[in-house]
Amino acid sequence: MADSRLSRRQFLTHTGRLALGVAATSLLAGCGSNAGGGASTPGASPTSPSGGTSQGGTTTISMMGWGSPLEKQNVQKGLDMFQQQHPDIKVKWIHVPQDYFTKLKTALAGGTPPDVFWTGNLADYVSRGVVMDITSYVEQDPVIGKPDYFLQPQEKERSTINGKWFGIGSCWVIHHLYYNSDILEKAGVEPPSPEPDKAWTWEEFLENCRKLTVDASGKHPGQPGFDPSKVQQWGVSWPTWSLPRDVLVFSNGGEAFTPDYKCHLGEPEAMEAIQALADLAVKHQVAPQAAQMQQLGMSSWQMLASGKLAILVDGSWALQDISKMNFKFGCGVLPKMKKVVTEAQAHCHVICSRTKHLDAAWQLLRFLSSDDYQLGLCKAGLWLPSHTSLLTEDGLKRWITPGVHPEGYDKIATEYLLKYSKNYFYPAGFEQADQILTSALDPVWIGKMTVQEAFKKTNAIGQVNQVLQQAKAKLEAQL
Amino acid sequence: MTTIAPTRQARLSIRAREAIYGYLFIAPAVLGFILWIAGPMIFSAWVSLTQWDMLSPPKIVGLQNYRQMLEDGLFWQSLKVTMYFTVVSVPLFQALAFAVALLMNVKVRGITVFRTIYYLPSIVPVVASSMLWAWIFNSDFGLLNSLLQAVGLPKVLWLQDPTWAMPALIVMSLWGIGGTMLIYLAGLQGVPAQLYEAAEIDGAGKWQQFLHVTVPMMSPVIFFNLVLGLIGALQTFTQGYIITNGGPGNSTLFYVLYLYRQAFTYFNMGYASAMAWVLFVIILALTLLVFRYVGRMVYYEDESR
Asked: Which residues pair with A165 in a beta bridge?
């Protein structure tokens, strides 16, 4: 049982760090809680952020972020470029590949926060006063301040709260279809198009999935004698976690979370969509039931590449890995229930409200949202651009890469992302809300309950709204 | 204060010197304990009386966190999950480790190779072995369901069905018996051979030898492993965190996993600290119970205690 003691030790270590940090934290009290107060200097903070020293005209600032080895490499490349442009600013890059948010929170609590960090859920950090309001910087910037610089309204929706800018994104990621070209061809199924106005209807999608699902004796779901326990090839894998689940809710005209801090997943359109998602496995038998578990063990990418799966719903970020696997694949837009839509989101870069080097931190933030920085990971297939300039004909040429982006992928960017994507609204308190929803819906995916029954039995929506109201009150007190 | 004692240079007595050395020798351990265990514990006791999100200053709320636990459905769920795991896995784990140790104590050729093989899983990091097990339990392509289907049994949704997720994790925990087995093995090798010889002369069969020689002689080791196993089981975290993330339907929401979520996901450090103290009290109480009722059955060869 060494494992559990290890985690206990980790816990104690964290607590230990907290203990050391508590003195500093209580000193910071005043500073930490007035963070919403505009882009003025954060006052005479008694503790300086880690590495925040300036000597001989050089300012050192720190940045904390996560990322795979490839991302890490790309960030380093970007930072080298930044260094050349700004020889007077040195960036200490704190790369945390695992348990990032635990480490970040500990650093923030311990009084040694990084000057710049990456957030998952911006509102959670803004509501705790650790994020600097950068509105005046953004608006006065000759490049970033231009109204058509970013894809709008998505950028504004994710980076601002009550009209104030708290961060800037440097990419978008969306959900779309991936398919194994050979399997579709063999089954005589026309591949899904990357053009939004040619999206499959839900019925077409179901029909195609049936054709693509085959058991050991060559039968398809719906045919007499079809054995779901001996499926050799699945039609589709559609994961059931928040984003792929709610993108279908959007498509059915429903909402997940709205800026008034309400959860709408209990409304009829939403429940209908979630049920339709569950029915792929439970009723129509065209999807494996292990959807959410596939990331462990055999991943859905491997299933797709090895021909055990015909169509996969996944994030655009998966393109980086899928394109490296040795098989013929393509990408298409998601099928529509009522309307064509996809969700879009990505992390934001923010400045810590306790930074002592606001101007230097802003220069870094600004750089992190530049073409120079985002192009590297766009080319690799991990990101989609967040600048309109990269979606023009010339702009596309700068990042669409043969061998990574399949044919027609430009339409995914210029049409699907630009015109049909909806910013996924993350309220403060999202993680807790999501865990309530996830555990309530678990029995639905295996057909033990309907969505309606599950929500009714657990009162999940009521609990979620309660969590959201508390989070909202906290956020409002801070703004 | 102007007088300085000039003759204080006189040698310290041997007793005093030894005392100083003694304190110096235990200083690292004591300091480490105070700094890294006692300090944080006192701190967390204080935090448990506050509402603290780690980012803004803590607010003292008295016993509110403890009161809140009584009404928190997930707190009780996590307690239930942890108890279920402990009650089932600890006896299974100890029995299996003991049985394997008995096998590893047999004198056959190449026994060291077997010992190595059986110990190997304990060296694999939990994260890696968790991944492997997730693959084995995969309902569509996993090894376990393939085996079940090969003998004509229906497939089981091991990690998606709230009924089966915990049994799956318990089976997985048995994978880690290596360390405990090793302690049993060491204990077995310390049982004097003449006792067996004497028993044999008295006409005891293998089973009676096991029951009347091996078990009593091993009882201190069994007791030791039982207590450690109990404490470890109550603190289980990793499997629920990595494989099931507490699901499906909170059926594997271990106590420490829920505590971790409260602390680092929901920003409720005060509540998490209160939970930690409640767990501490539970562990203490159960351990004392085990000492009281199991401890007195332990036979010590050296009865001078």
From this structure: A160
